[in-house]
Amino acid sequence: MQSTSERPSPRTREALGLFAGLPDRYDLMAELLSLGQNRRWQRFLVEQIDTPPGARILDVATGTAAVAIMLTDRGQGSVIGLDQSAPMIQAGARAVERAALRPRVALLLGKGERLPFADCAFDAVTFTYLLRYTDDPGATLVELNRVLRPGGMLGGMEFHVPRGALPRRLWWLYTRIGLPTAGRLVSRSWYEVGRFLGPSIEDFYRRYPLERQLALWRAAGVPQPQVRVMSLGGAVVIWGRKGHESSAFA
């Protein structure tokens, strides 16, 4: 868990400020701004997480706990949801209460880059929209894998940038014009999100194209990551099993 004396990095401060005003309408707006695809992406991620009965699962960047709730809906043991944003954790707690899922879902304030758990503590680890907000995605993947038992499932979902010329042009127009316009109709906070997302996603994929992301997964200890690019390139889901031997933990 993040120490109260720790000074967050500029990237962390930006993420915390961005999400501070979003929780009350987050799930609805995530669906609207993704043109109804966000839940579909989440469901696909959850479907890849194959765990034994009674599994212990960690969901990082849990936000409003949507993926954590989906995991328990599939009967997959107990879930700890972790997020660095206190307002998002509070919104997630309300969602868990509405779903009557306590104590199967527990929520915790903390950072994916420094997890407050022992090595090999979980049967599966999931995350959504996490890596763009970290200073070192490769080190973050190593930390996520650290708390995963050998043979356990790691799965993540991120936004993506379409590769074809026409899809990419349409994506650019939507993220630069459509998202800010839609956000402005709701609130100042959502306008800022709409204005931020397109450049943020594009910058991340300039620095970490999909091939490099897969290489980071392998270096972190997932030797055979699988990938599915979804919705004409709007999102990507990556998943795989932790190896029994990994140079990341040698």
Describe the protein in words.
This protein has a seven-stranded mixed sheet with strand order 3-2-1-4-5-7-6. Helix 6 packs parallel to helix 9 and helix 7 (165-184) runs antiparallel to helix 8. Strand 4, helix 6 and strand 5 form a beta-alpha-beta unit. It is globular. Helices cover 44% and strands 19% of the residues. It has helices at 10-19, 26-33, 38-47, 66-73, 86-98, 137-146, 165-184, 188-207, 210-220; strands spanning 56-60, 78-83, 105-109, 122-128, 148-159, 226-230, 235-241. Mean pLDDT is 89; it is low at 1-5. It is of the alpha/beta class and 250 residues long.
Short description:
With 250 residues, the protein is an alpha/beta fold. The chain is 44% helix and 19% strand. It has a seven-stranded mixed beta sheet.
N- to C-terminal distance: 25 Å
Strand adjacency order, main sheet: 3-2-1-4-5-7-6
Number of helices: 9
Rounded mean pLDDT score? 89
Task: Based on Cα principal axes, name the global outline.
Answer: globular
Features:
single chain; 250 residues; alpha/beta; seven-stranded mixed β-sheet; 7 strands; disordered N terminus
Give the SSE map.
Elements: H1 10-19, H2 26-33, H3 38-47, E1 56-60, H4 66-73, E2 78-83, H5 86-98, E3 105-109, E4 122-128, H6 137-146, E5 148-159, H7 165-184, H8 188-207, H9 210-220, E6 226-230, E7 235-241
